[in-house]
Amino acid sequence: LFCRIAAGDVPSRKAYEDQDIYGFHDIQPQAPVHMLFVTKRHFKDAADLTDPLLFGKLCRAAVETGRSLLEAREGFRLVLYTGPQAGQSVFHIHLHFLAGRPLAWPPG
User: Distance between CA 88 and CA 45 in Å, rounded?
Assistant: First the structure.
């Protein structure tokens, strides 16, 4: 699904895009601001993405996009699931950016 979203084949509300990364707003947000950032090339999860520059670019895209939002000024959370036991349900690496409300710990 995320490959198709990044390619523009499935509609999304774009938040960020460059040649390697696509960011969009989650359709089932868990916070007032909930965006997902994906690589345009398919990687199953964080363990599958071995390119440290691309991994850093994924994180930087989320931080830079979110930092400009008023709702994120008090803080934000980045979440990356790897594998079903960790809660990953879509097997394409994706980084969640959450902000706009207090985020409790532990999350679940």
Answer: 9
Token digits of residue 38:
């994906």
Cβ 88 vs Cβ 81: under 8 Å:
yes
Give me the sign of the Cα torsion angle 42, 56, 62, 101.
positive
Per-residue pLDDT tens, the chain, 108 aa: give them: 898 999 889 999 999 999 999 999 999 999 999 999 999 999 999 999 999 999 999 999 999 999 888 788 889 999 999 999 999 999 999 999 999 999 988 875
Q: What is the pTM of this model?
A: 0.93
92 as an active site residue: the answer is no
The one catalytic residue among 34, 92, 94, 96: 94
Q: Which long-range contacts (CB under 8 A, 24 or more apart) does 52-56 make?
A: 54/20
Backbone angles phi, psi at 19, to 5 degrees: -70, -20
Give the number of other Cβ atoms within 10 Å of residue 57's Cβ.
Answer: 17
